[in-house]
């Protein structure tokens, strides 16, 4: 069928009670009007309270927000213009369990403060950062969450991106003293020609040079967290 089914139509067809989704085999990509229900069902059935997504277009972000309802919220921007164009790397959180303190984002390029693409990369790439508080335990736990999607074509971009993310994560660990969570599609295996980002983020290879302003903004004192790695 054409992919023109409204969210309300999908909601009307949900089973009651919700069942854990049975995932499709490799039969080709299903229309988003079907896939969004599977995502929603998975979040609900597994009791998930925090989720990072990649390759999400504005319609998909808005649809998930509608399906999840008022107890959920999200942060992020479209990578192409810093507003709504292009793919998002959004962070969704359940407000009854997780509180948002602040959020920002940066581009994984030589000019991280503005929408921009690293030379030779296939696409513009972005990292979303959220300062959050987990409220479900006896005591609130502040933490920082970074969600991203590295390039599928340029290992140089992935190395730069991993170096930037590691720099920011190290700074947040030093500044807040809280846990750091990093999720995303790194397009980088643990070994082989595409392993550069993995090796940097896990501390097996030194970071590469990054934008000087960004590096200075998120610098930590010498000797701080010498063994920090993702």
From TrEMBL:
Annotated organism of origin: Polyporus grammocephalus
Highest taxon above the source species: Eukaryota
Protein name: Mannose-6-phosphatase
Cross-referenced InterPro entries: Endo/exonu/phosph_ase_sf, Endo/exonuclease/phosphatase
Residues of the Endonuclease/exonuclease/phosphatase domain: 31-209
Organism ancestry: Eukaryota, Fungi, Dikarya, Basidiomycota, Agaricomycotina
One term of GO molecular function: catalytic activity
């Amino acid at each position: 069928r054409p992919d023109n089914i409204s969210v309300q139509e999908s909601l009307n067809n949900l089973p009651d009670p919700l069942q854990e989704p049975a995932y499709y085999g490799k039969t080709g990509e299903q229309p988003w009007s079907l896939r969004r229900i599977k995502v929603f069902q998975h979040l609900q059935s597994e009791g998930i309270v925090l989720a990072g997504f990649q390759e999400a277009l504005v319609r998909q972000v808005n649809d998930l927000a509608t399906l999840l309802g008022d107890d959920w919220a999200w942060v992020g921007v479209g990578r192409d213009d810093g507003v709504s164009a292009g793919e998002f790397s959004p962070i969704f959180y359940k407000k009854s369990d997780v509180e948002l303190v602040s959020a920002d984002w940066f581009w994984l390029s030589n000019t991280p403060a503005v929408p921009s693409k690293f030379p030779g990369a296939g696409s513009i790439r972005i990292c979303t950062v959220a300062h959050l508080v987990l409220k479900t335990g006896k005591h609130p736990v502040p933490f920082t969450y970074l969600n991203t999607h590295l390039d599928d074509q340029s290992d140089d971009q992935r190395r730069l991106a991993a170096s930037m993310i590691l720099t920011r994560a190290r700074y947040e660990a030093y500044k807040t003293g809280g846990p750091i969570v990093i999720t995303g599609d790194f397009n980088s295996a643990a070994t082989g020609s595409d392993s550069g980002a993995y090796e940097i983020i896990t501390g097996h290879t030194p970071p590469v040079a990054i934008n000087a302003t960004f590096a200075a903004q998120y610098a930590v004192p010498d000797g701080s967290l010498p063994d920090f790695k993702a």
